[in-house]
Write a structure and sequence with these properties.
The protein has 66 residues and is an alpha+beta fold. It is built from one helix and four strands, in the order ββαββ. Strands 2-1-3-4 form a four-stranded antiparallel sheet, with helices on one face. The chain is globular, with a radius of gyration of 11 Å.
Length: 66
């Protein structure tokens, strides 16, 4: 299974933490990104990386609360 790294970012552009996870495919990684964004109230976006390739950016809608 491919390894994906998830980085939730605060509004100031700082990565709050990261999470490495083996997942079966990119579609599952997109779902995981939405879950991580929902769990981190101070995050405005989550970037999903596979090695040095940006796979996906999940951005919180302005005015949306988690």
């Amino acid at each position: 299974m491919p390894a994906y790294t998830f980085y939730p970012y605060a509004a100031q552009g700082l990565a709050l933490t990261f999470e490495d996870t083996d997942l079966p495919d990119e579609a599952t990684a997109y779902v995981q990104a939405r879950r991580i964004l929902a769990e981190h109230d101070s995050a405005v976006e989550v970037q999903v990386w596979q090695d040095d390739r940006l796979v996906h950016r999940e951005v919180r809608e302005q005015g949306a609360s988690a």
